[in-house]
Every structure is written in C-alpha cells, then in structure tokens.
Amino acid sequence: MITPPETVRTNTARVACDGASDIRGGAALGHPRVWLQIDEKGYVECGYCDRRYVLIGGPADVPEAA
C-alpha cells in the first residue's frame, strides 16, 4: 500500500519547504529549501518531496475523513 504524501495546513499563501523541517538537524536530511506560492486552487505541492501545503479556509481545505 502506498502512503499518501504529507499534507500541511497553513494560514499563509507563501511557504518554505526543505523536506525536513520537522526533523532535528533539518536540511541535512531533507532537500534544498524552496519557497512555494499557493494559488487559486488553494494548495501547492513541493516538487522535491511531494508535501502538500493547503491554505486554511481555501478551496482545497476540506475536513479529513474520520
């Protein structure tokens, strides 16, 4: 079974991703830091790690299934 990429909800339309922001030691274990802009779809995906950033209250912000 393939696990879906991580989804991060954010309240800003511009986000930075380094693939390891939640890991102590950070970028040494991730990828180069990139800045991503959420557009009218309400989300953006990182081209390196496929992490999806969803704008809170935007069109892609849907409740997770329980």
From TrEMBL:
Query: Superkingdom of the source?
Result: Bacteria
Q: Which residues form the Zinc finger CHCC-type domain?
A: 14-53
Pfam families assigned to the protein according to its UniProt record, in alphabetical order: zf-CHCC
- Give the matching Gene3D superfamilies: q5lls5 like domains
UniProt name for this protein: Putative Zn-finger protein
- Which species is this record about? Blastomonas natatoria
